[in-house]
């Protein structure tokens, strides 16, 4: 009697994952049995809440099945080459690790290898799966970072827990923001030369066009407090200036193409060094550069040092504010004051600075008004070469620094100037750097992601 030939079945990893996922689904569905035994069926809200509570068990189990199937060879690995010398090393032990993701927890068994020659220990599975050293993985940290840069850490942790079902402490939110932002330095936040050239090319109407690049510099004050010594009262509060720069393209169609924003609590010399690094990435021969600022001396010293070929433009609205102060001091609240302001601003727009100064010198004013008049005269004399608003508008150059003002509000004010908030300088700089990464589509999040394995 003959025997039928045996059929060899090939192992299909996907089928194994499907089987394991079905087991997880069966266990999850079994938890719903009490819902069918109730006298009154649950409402849609109650069903949704039940799904939310039990979803991590189901999705985490499916994710666990995928991880076990795709990385089984690394979890069972017995030998591995040393990343330093290449020597083949035997596994020293197996280290368990629980990873918390947005889908649920995943438990891994990682082989630990140690090279006695190089004195280096490593887990190959961690490198292959790009695991964070922390319990919460990068998908959780991304949500924590995004919310923690917008609101207080405690509130951010509450929202992450409520919206994702992943419990996160406010201390974790604080620590992770500081750790990740340590990598969000100027090098990673500012786009590289290739990205800047790409954006300039997109803003061009034709190959020979040179779009306007605006470099706006300004300062905003933030409440800071020095770190108190142990068992002592908190350090004294002090308002410090957050110096910020914003670079953007201003094509003729009126839209703004952001390039970079950088805000830090630092002195003028440090800001100058940062802006010089940014300027080195700009192909200045491909753009027309407009330098926008108010009347602060450090602003123009920094801008004109870093962009010597740029066209300096004094913020029109800052200039108009000084003109209004003189009108209020000399004329008071009357129609004559409005007429004088309109006539003065019209002369300034037409680059008649000398005529305005001559008119100010002839005003017969009391001591209080004369002090404001003298301030305006000095202001106009110091910035005479930066006032030609009609010509700027004819060339398509902006005359107002609204873009940097809005950046100050979004990056600095909205986060640092909260009721009762006082910041240590280093922590405030971390918060500003984090908000710079979320303020722009610069790809800086990807740059940080390449380096965050340090944590």
What report would you give on this structure?
By secondary structure, the chain is of the alpha+beta class. The chain has two domains: 73-183, no CATH class; 192-227 and 234-445, no CATH class. The chain has 20 helices and nine strands. The protein has helices spanning 13-30, 33-37, 44-70, 72-75, 124-129, 138-148, 153-164, 170-181, 186-189, 193-203, 268-279, 297-306, 316-330, 335-349, 353-362, 367-382, 389-394, 402-416, 425-439, 444-451; strands spanning 79-81, 88-101, 104-115, 120-122, 212-225, 237-249, 257-265, 288-293, 311-314. The strands form two sheets. It has a five-stranded mixed beta sheet, sandwiched between helices. A hairpin with a 2-residue loop joins strand 2 and strand 3 (104-115). Helix 6 (138-148) packs across helix 8 (170-181), helix 13 (316-330) runs antiparallel to helix 14 (335-349) and helix 18 crosses helix 19 (425-439). The longest helix has 27 residues, at 44-70. The radius of gyration is 31 Å and the shape is elongated. The model is unreliable at 441-455 (pLDDT under 50).
Encode the helix/strand succession as letters.
HHHHEEEEHHHHHHEEEHEHEHHHHHHHH
Class by helix and strand content?
A: alpha+beta
Q: Report the end-to-end length measured between terminal Cα atoms.
A: 68 Å
Determine the fraction of residues in helical runs and give it as a percent range: 40-55%
| Largest β sheet strand count, sense and barrel closure | 5 strands, mixed
Q: Taking strands numbered 1, 2, ... along the chain, how are they ordered across the largest sheet?
A: 7-6-5-8-9
Radius of gyration: 31 Å
- Strand tally: 9
Estimate the mean pLDDT confidence: 85
Number of helices: 20
Percent of residues in beta strands?
Answer: 15-25%
Low-confidence stretches: 441-455
| Total individual domains | 2
Shape: elongated
